[in-house]
Design a protein that fits this description.
This protein is α+β, with helices and mostly antiparallel strands. It has ten helices and 19 strands.
């Protein structure tokens, strides 16, 4: 009888242990949830805040330039052909400065970017390596005056010839990035018609910021953490032709909200292309035993209006000016220059775009935009933000040296702004996030397993004892021969 009592006691204990394991699952999950929230929100002392101010992952800007190998034939109307040169790599640093917290759970800041050349990650010296490309200031002037009088366009023709202003230039990689003195810009600068005598995509920008951001800290709602409230004092953009296109959505890509789901869109804003864009789930994989969700910018984001009507607002100035699929008219945010953005090698662009140029070899793996996020914290361990800069060209009948110029989207360069988690970052992540989570999960399911196992064993013991008792009761009291 005492033995049965012990067995029943063990059975009850096993049930309690199992119930405790079940009860701990939501409790521990809630503890982990709160721990993540506490460390992700942007407040003094949180891990998220420290990582937001100074990214723990090194960020690199890599540039490839397009060398036009048949520029003389292009002047006579032939399709341009290109050879890619690069990468030329710069370490990019953009710590947050002038940080101010507000009572409505928002934060304002500036993020000046500094670029430092990294020779060991580059194919050559950007100040020495040259390539042949379009004279972009000239093409900008021609583009701005194309709807003016024929006489004015002919005067541009005479002026260009008089000063030896060539359609194509041999520039260094450093020139196209950080600037070179242009004779027309220099002339205009003397009369205060232009802000500088230099042209370059990053001329005067090294060490400068792209404007003030106001973001949400996430303290009232963690799903709003790092999402942009205003940019340059406005809650929307003014570059595009409808409200949808001008929406200011998402983060700047440096920090995502936690608890990422496969069916959600990750929105981000890029001041480089003056618009918000979204990424969708692509696949799940593991990196050093850390689960990651890959999010990519889908082809429909670049599709023409007939395929994606939401893109109508990116046709400027009106829907009558829509470009082929895969292209974004950037002239409205580039001071009227005929700049057109695309993915590198015109990935996802319509065939008509590819037919205009030679030398492109698009590859999804090499040229798409991607964010590899850890779903619990939202941390991006790997990022590749890629963009190509092109110039829209066409024949200009009243400008003699451009009257036969082919219609094209002339690629100038493409870049990849990338970040990859170092071994130290991976180790720290495992120590701070994955190890406690794994330990907690082990305790939950360990207790549940022990409880279930104990219950099963005790039930088995009770059954065996019941069987033994039955056998004893059916035995004869006396045995032997008479």
């Amino acid at each position: 009888m005492a033995g049965s009592g012990k067995v029943i006691g063990c059975l009850v204990f096993g049930c309690l242990i199992g119930v405790l394991g079940v009860v701990l699952i939501p409790v521990v999950n809630k503890v982990i949830h709160n721990m993540v929230v506490d460390q992700i929100v942007l407040k003094n002392g949180s891990t998220g805040y420290d990582n937001w101010i100074n990214a723990p992952v090194p960020v690199y800007a890599q540039y490839w330039v397009w060398d036009c190998i048949n520029h003389m034939e292009v002047l006579e109307g032939e399709k341009p052909h290109f050879v890619q040169k690069g990468p030329y790599t710069y370490r990019e640093m953009w710590p947050k400065e002038n940080i101010t917290f507000y009572d409505n759970y928002t934060i304002s800041y500036l993020a000046p970017k500094t670029y430092v050349f990294v020779p060991e990650m580059s194919v050559g010296d950007p100040q020495e390596d040259k390539f042949t490309t379009l004279n972009i200031p000239l093409m900008t002037i021609v583009n701005l005056l194309q709807y003016e009088s024929d006489l004015l366009q002919m005067l541009i023709d005479l002026m260009a010839r008089g000063i030896g202003y060539d359609t194509f230039l041999e520039l260094s990689v450093h020139d196209i990035l950080w600037g070179y003195k242009d004779p027309v810009l220099e002339f205009a600068f003397k009369f205060n018609l232009m802000p500088s005598a230099y042209f370059g995509f990053y001329a005067g920008k090294n060490g400068t910021n792209d404007g003030e951001y106001v973001i949400y800290s996430g303290e009232d709602d963690v799903q709003k953490v790092n999402k942009i409230f205003t940019y340059k004092g406005s809650t929307s953009l003014d570059f595009w032709s409808d409200e949808y296109a001008n929406m200011l959505n998402g983060t700047d890509g440096s920090l995502n909200p936690p608890f990422v789901k496969k069916d959600q869109k990750l929105w981000l804003f890029s001041s480089d292309i003056c618009r918000s864009a979204y990424l969708i789930y692509d696949k799940e994989y593991k990196y050093q035993n850390i689960k990651l969700y890959r999010f990519v910018v889908p082809p429909e984001l670049y599709a023409n209006v007939s395929m994606n009507p939401d893109n109508a607002g990116f046709c400027t100035p009106t829907i009558a000016n829509c470009l082929p699929g895969g292209l974004l008219n950037g002239s409205s945010c580039q001071q009227g220059a005929p700049v057109v953005f695309s993915l590198p090698h015109f990935l996802y662009a319509d065939q008509v775009v590819h037919d205009m140029v030679g030398g492109m070899n698009p590859s999804k793996e090499e040229h798409q935009i991607l964010f590899d996020a850890e779903p619990l914290t939202g941390a991006s361990l790997f990022v590749d933000k890629r963009i190509q800069i092109n110039i829209h060209t066409q024949p200009y009948p009243h400008i003699a040296f451009l009257k036969d110029f082919p219609k094209s989207f002339f690629p100038i360069l493409w870049l990849n702004e990338s970040a990859s988690a170092t071994d130290k970052v991976v180790h720290d992540f495992k120590h701070q996030v994955q190890t406690p989570q794994t330990a907690a999960t082990a305790v939950e399911y360990g207790l549940l397993s022990i409880g279930v196992l104990l219950v099963i064993v005790m039930i088995f013991v009770l059954i065996r004892r019941r069987q033994e008792k039955t056998t004893d009761e059916t035995k004869p009291l006396l045995s032997g021969t008479t």
